[in-house]
Write a structure and sequence with these properties.
With 140 residues, this protein is α+β, with helices and mostly antiparallel strands. Helices cover 26% and strands 41% of the residues. The chain has 3 helices and 8 strands; from the N terminus they run ααββββαββββ. The chain has a 6-stranded antiparallel β-sheet with strand order 1-2-6-7-8-5. A two-stranded antiparallel ribbon has the order 3-4. Strand 7 and strand 8 form a beta hairpin.
Length: 140
């Protein structure tokens, strides 16, 4: 059975993360949202390239950061948590994202009352991993 997310958390995630100016500008959307299991989508846009049709590494890092923050927020207790922020973001680029939409998959590696460590994979539509990121989030 798939766990469902608290509606208060879903509202918070959609309002603060997905509707943030940067996420809206990039066109990031939620494909799946469950506790500790988040899948986001970034549509390809020429405004996000660095050379030819290669998606800029900073755009990929931003997608990873938002996915990690969303995964962190997805499993918190809405009655006790007031906010959160990224403490560290480490991105390993494995291959270029050449003119394609990107998706994410997340796995929360560690969760405590004060933070999370989340692994984020960025992949192309064929499932090839473009980048792997580790996002450490502080929760308060």
């Amino acid at each position: 059975m798939t766990a469902t997310i608290d509606p208060r958390i879903e509202s918070l995630v959609r309002k603060l993360l997905i509707a943030s100016p940067v996420a809206r500008h990039l066109g990031i959307t939620i494909n799946h949202l469950a506790p500790d299991d988040v899948r986001l989508r970034l549509p390809f846009a020429m405004e996000n390239v660095t050379v030819d049709r290669i998606v800029h590494g900073g755009v990929i890092a931003t997608l990873a950061d938002i996915a990690g923050a969303t995964a962190s927020a997805s499993g918190v207790d809405p009655a006790t948590v007031r906010g959160g922020a990224t403490q560290t973001l480490v991105v390993n680029y494995l291959r270029p994202a050449d003119g394609c939409d990107l998706g994410t998959s997340t796995r929360v590696l560690s969760r405590s009352r004060s933070g999370t460590v989340t692994s984020v994979e960025i992949h192309d539509p064929d499932g090839q991993i473009i980048a792997q990121a580790t996002v450490t989030s502080r929760i308060w």
